[in-house]
Design a protein that fits this description.
The chain is an alpha/beta fold. The protein is built from 10 helices and 12 strands. It is globular.
Length: 263
């Protein structure tokens, strides 16, 4: 279990700007938790704190009951995988090379038979086996994103954190990616925390949604509890219209001035 207890995180030369303000959160096991909110709400910072990439200035994050700051980095990496929003590689590598990086916490770069098997399983699960020898700069954006997911699959952790995995993906690949995230939970029993900008993707795929604003959690709950005008309007400073499609709440981005709605 991962718990965030009264965490405050500050930036600035004199730590005078609070990005997170006394945040507490218990990550739901074997489910998809989506963090939503406007830019600057603190979503990505919260991910960084939960994975100990950004140690909390105040408060504590516990991993299976232990302060995550007291656990060796290699041991944390065997339980927690984190895919950042922007992936920058300065070397020319193949899809398979990338996925093999996921085994580093387990083998230190010296792949054994068991590690190679995990790599092949991840490639197969993400339907990348036929392009595993292709270079990353030769494949589509959607395929590249699946390759990074395969890398963290090969890492074989129970907890997966994704920071805006739909960034720069078109609708087709965004839907495909969210289906993959759903399968990670439903088929593999992973626990996923994901930052999403598209509220409708959160409504459609998340089990639990955490709405944030100005470094604080405004409200958390099921999609039906969060996808409401009472919650979303103040969180995003926008007037939403909520409707229902096949049992799911859907946001219409309503513009009163033009009297028009758009999904």
């Amino acid at each position: 279990m991962i718990e965030v207890k009264n965490v405050t995180q500050s930036y600035g030369r004199f730590a005078d700007r609070d990005i997170l303000k006394d945040v507490s959160l218990t990550v739901r096991e074997k489910s998809i938790t989506a963090l939503v909110g406007a830019n600057g709400a603190g979503k990505s910072t919260l991910l960084g704190v939960m994975t100990n990439l950004v140690p909390a200035r105040q408060g504590v994050v516990t991993l299976d009951g232990v302060d995550i700051r007291k656990i060796k980095t290699a041991e944390v990496s065997k339980k927690v995988a984190f895919l950042k929003q922007t992936q920058q590689l300065s070397v020319k590598i193949t899809v398979k090379d990338l996925v093999e990086y996921g085994r580093f916490p387990h083998c230190g770069g010296r792949l054994r038979t068991a590690d190679k098997l995990k790599v092949e399983e991840a490639l197969s699960y993400m339907n990348l086996a036929d392009i595993k020898n292709s270079y990353l700069d030769e494949i589509s954006g959607g395929q590249r994103q699946r390759a990074f997911i395969a890398m963290i699959l090969a890492q074989d952790t129970p907890y997966i954190f994704l920071d805006e995995p739909l960034n720069n993906l078109d609708i087709r690949y965004s839907v495909e990616m969210m289906k993959v995230v759903y399968r990670l939970v439903s088929e593999l029993g992973k626990t996923v925390v994901v930052v999403l900008h598209d509220i409708n993707f959160a409504a459609a795929y998340a089990n639990h949604i955490v709405a944030m604003k100005d470094g604080e959690i405004v409200k958390e709950g099921s999609p039906d509890e969060i996808i409401t005008t009472e919650v979303l309007n103040p969180v995003f400073d926008h007037d939403f219209h909520i409707t229902c499609c096949e049992g799911k709440s859907v946001c219409l981005y309503y513009d009163k001035a033009s009297k028009r709605c758009a999904i």
